[in-house]
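Exercise 7.
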Amino acid sequence: MKILASFVLAAAAITLAAPAQAQFAKPEDAIKYRKAVMTLQGSHFGRIAAMANGRIPFDAAAVVENATVLEMVTRLPLAGFVPGSDKGETGAKPEIWTDTAKFKSVGEKLNADSVKLLVAAKTGNLDMIKAAVGPVGGTCKACHDDFRKD
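Solution. The predicted structure, written as tokens, is:
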């Protein structure tokens, strides 16, 4: 029993210590991670925006589903902007690393806007969803304008 308990304790310690270690083995891994996150953000927000703009039929359940994923995914990008990941196949501008406070602030605003979009989505009210889509899109654009290469 002591051996099992020791094993469980050791496994828990390793699991809990893992986040403290470097999250990415190579800078290229961080770049791949953040590209994947951005693809997810664009895909899920794009579906909501298409419904809000009338390009595709409105489906309240689909908006909630996509807004739920979007809200969660908007918490992820900052982890992928680690030192050394400014080189290679990346569209990231150097300002991400030179104006980190502003970059972090925009990321936090995107998440806050996504939370508001999720709240609106859960109402099922298309007008409320439309009103919440604009700020999310605006924050995405602002981040791309300031921190993404053309």
